[in-house]
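User: I want to check something. If I give you two sequences, will you return the structure for each one separately, not as a complex?

Assistant: Yes, each is folded on its own. Here is the first sequence with its structure:
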Amino acid sequence: MSELKDLFYLGLGTAMIAKEKFEEEAKDLIEKGKVSKEDQDAFVEKAKARAKDEEKEFQVKFKSVVKDVISEMGLATKEDIDELKELLKNK
């Protein structure tokens, strides 16, 4: 399980570094007069929307990987435990 945690933190760290670099580059372009503030704001909004979409996609993939790992390890899921509890109640 520690590999999954490491993978999650790696992805999170990478996203934070990318955000910081992006903000630095955007600031530099504005200061150099190559991009207007309005253009930068529009680009940032598009980038945020795309980042949210990618975050959702990452979450779906991450959940799938976690489920696969749990399955491969033979660990009981919440559903498995609930089913066993129900069987024990009915005996």
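And separately, the second sequence with its own structure:
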Amino acid sequence: MMYIRFPLSLRNVEDLLHERGIDITHETVRFWWNRFGPLFARSIRKRRVENANYSSWAWHLDEVFVKINGELHYLWRAVDHEGEVLEAYVTKTRNRKAALRFLRKAMKRYGRPDVVVTDRLGSYKAAMREIGNASRQTTDRWLNNRAENSHQPLRRREKIMNRFRSMRSLQKFAAVQSSIHNHFNLERHFNPREDFKENRSAALAEWRPLAA
């Protein structure tokens, strides 16, 4: 949780655990997140999908430019109106075919959204037309700030990790980070302090048996 949720390096987590009397190496932290991260993410995602009917209301789609070994790749991301990360998908291209695969992957899990907010990239328009969802797309200025802001945790992680080494590692980390981010996404700027503290305690209480 510490490594995925916060912008910490493997060695930062090792030092923090050492202060708590837990003597491990940073490679152990790497093994833990690689081995157990996807399992925890799958459990969180399963629970949220079962109770996430609201996620079909409005989607915000955007793509992040990521360099892997000097080669440009694209991380497509779908976020709902409350900042929940719905889907993350890595591709080498930014064309209609890639946008179509991304949309179909997200819709298979969450269904067809009522409104889809995108930038003016033509690939979105072509893909939406093909799946029969073109009438629900909107590209008005400033409406996609929700997606733009959701990129920030990943960008911070990318800097700490000195960039990603492969498409597979980026896809895996993005999927795990998205699920854990959703679990602890408490919208603290919208809630009174007392409500935030209660929600934070509930999120931690739900996490502990999951990680146990």
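Because they were folded independently, the notes below concern the second chain alone. Strands lie at 58-68, 71-80, 85-91, 115-117, 137-138. The CA atoms of residues 125 and 134 lie 7 Å apart.
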